[in-house]
Amino acid sequence: MFLYFLTLVLMVMGLYCLIAKKNIVKKIIGIVIMEYSINLFLILIGYKKDGIAPILLKNVSVEELTSRGVDPLPQALVLTSIVIGLGTLALMVAICLRIYEKYKTFDMSKINKLKG
Amino acid sequence: MGIILLILIAIMIIGSIVAIETKNLLSSVISCGVVGFCLSIVFLMLGAPDIAITQVVVEILILVILIRATITTDNTAIEGARDTFPYVSSLIFFGLFLIFSWFALQELPRFGEPLMRVSREYLKTGAAKTGATNIVTSVLLDFRGYDTVGEATVLFTSIIGAFVILRRKGRKEKSEADSEKFGILEDDDIKDSFEGF
Question: What ipTM does this complex have?
């Protein structure tokens, strides 16, 4: 239970970085940290005590895998989520570099050409 | 086991504090890398070797991309008057969020005792049905194949978006200089080329 709470603390810190920091690269780092914490939370939920990895090795029978193996479903979905995180990070950094080219700064408060 | 996990997650939290609060952008990126590699070790301990491998590879790529964003740019610290409103409002919100999440987490299954209603079936019949000894792979590519197709679509879209944003030149207006450059012949050019015969 305490481990779950610690991952949520990590997520809140990423959210704080996303909201309160002015530097765009810091905001991206905040998003990355949130991503890490959510992935960790999902994997922690699927863990079984004294569990083995869900791989059918030579010395593991199907019955033993069924009774002792950890949950494979969140693992498959988190695998998807990690790779998607990389793609979105590439998109964010591309936008960030374009903004830097135009304004010569990463400061959010100076990027105000479209301010109403 | 539990204590080692606790220590690793504490290291992750310390690394993220350093990443958030340090002034230099490059050291902030490196601290973010500390968080990612600790996460990979935690995955390895929780019985998820596939995800640990993927996390290491993706973490290296994330570091390369973020260092590309910081190393050629002006990474001096941003100074200036701080607004108090985002700090105060976010601190109040996060306190409330953590209090409520503490009560919500009591309702979840305890750590080490997952529900596994669907996945017990996967573990029991996955190897016989799909022929894959790695059950994660059989879930990813067989039982939930449409999810993987969607993932490939999202990845493709985001990479196309990054490519379009980073591209130097868009399509040019057609003008005199362009037609000469691209080899489109004007009337005079055609005349000149026929004079040779």
Answer: 0.90
Give residue A32's pLDDT.
Answer: 94
Backbone angles phi, psi at A48, to 5 degrees: -110, 145
Q: Is the separation of the CB atoms in A109 and B81 below 8 Å?
A: no
Q: Could you tell me the CA-to-CA distances from B31 to B12, B38, B62, B136 in Å, in that order?
A: 9, 11, 12, 30
Which residues, including other chains, have CB under 8 Å from residue A60's CB and lie 6 or more apart?
A: A52
Candidate from B35, B109, B127 with C-beta closest to A36? B35
- Chain A positions touching B118 (Cβ under 8 A) are 73
Which positions in chain B touch A22 (Cβ < 8 Å)? 78, 80
Contact present, B94 and A12 (Cβ < 8 Å): yes
Cα distance between residue B169 and residue B189, in whole Å: 27
Provide the Cα torsion B186, B190, B195, B197; round to 10°: 160
CA distance A45 to chain B (A): 6
Domains (range + CATH), chain A: 2-110 (1.10.287.3510)
Q: What angle do CA A74, A78, A84 make, to 5 degrees?
A: 150
Between CA B52 and CA B86, with CA B32 as vertex, the angle to 5 degrees is: 130
B142-182 pLDDT tens trace: 898 898 999 999 999 999 999 999 887 766 666 555 555 55
Q: Which chain B residues are closer than 8 Å to A84 by Cβ?
A: 151, 154-155, 158
